[in-house]
Amino acid sequence: MKLLAITSCPSGVAHTYMAAEALEVAAKAKGWDVKVETQGSIGIENEITMSDVADADIIILTKDIAIKNEERFAGKKIVRVGVADAVKKAPQIMDKIEAHLAQA
Known about the structure:
The protein is of the alpha/beta class. The protein has a single domain, classed as Rossmann fold (3-Layer(aba) Sandwich), CATH 3.40.50. Helices cover 40% and strands 25% of the residues. A five-stranded mixed sheet has the order 3-2-1-4-5. β2 (33-40) and β3 form a beta hairpin. The longest helix has 16 residues, at 14-29. The chain is globular and about 35 Å long. It starts with a strand and ends with a helix.
């Protein structure tokens, strides 16, 4: 499984990076490949490439503010989560994704 995520929060500081770390840890705990782009107060970091997108099975986007360059993910399976949920419930998010993909 190849997972991509973009995290961003209204202030672009703490929650952006806490969500990125939580999603990365939870995905790796499942044995999944993961790359997380952050769109924080200092700009875009760890930018997702079109090659990354082509290889991705699913994309997680935080929904608290608009994600820059979201059009990159046209045609991909996208899961939208609140940044606070990404921080606090990342393992449960991964479980739901896994269950959904198992049914597909």
